[in-house]
Write a structure and sequence with these properties.
The protein is an all-beta fold. Helix content is about 0%, strand content about 60%. The strands form two sheets. It has a four-stranded antiparallel sheet with strand order 4-5-6-7, with no helix packed on it. The protein has a three-stranded antiparallel sheet with strand order 1-2-3, with no helix packed on it. The mean pLDDT is about 80.
Length: about 70
């Protein structure tokens, strides 16, 4: 599974499924950034800010979901 940039469509990070729990692949370090009250992952390819929001996953647990982009 992969999370792609909403602007350029290239890979931002991979997700792994470990016994039904989806998590971010940690082989590549990608930090959450904060600016103007928004939390985002910066695309390593086009530098777009992929803003994340808190959501609920299939198991009913809290998770982050990419909502929209800021340039």
């Amino acid at each position: 599974m992969a999370e792609r940039c909403l602007k350029c469509g290239r890979l931002v990070f991979k997700k792994v499924d470990h016994k039904g729990n989806v998590a971010m692949e940690t082989s590549i370090r990608l930090d959450l950034e904060l600016e103007g009250g928004e939390v985002f992952f910066r695309c390593p390819h086009c530098s777009a800010k992929n803003v994340v929001v808190e959501a609920t996953n299939r198991s009913g647990l809290p998770a982050l979901r990419v909502s929209h982009i800021r340039e």
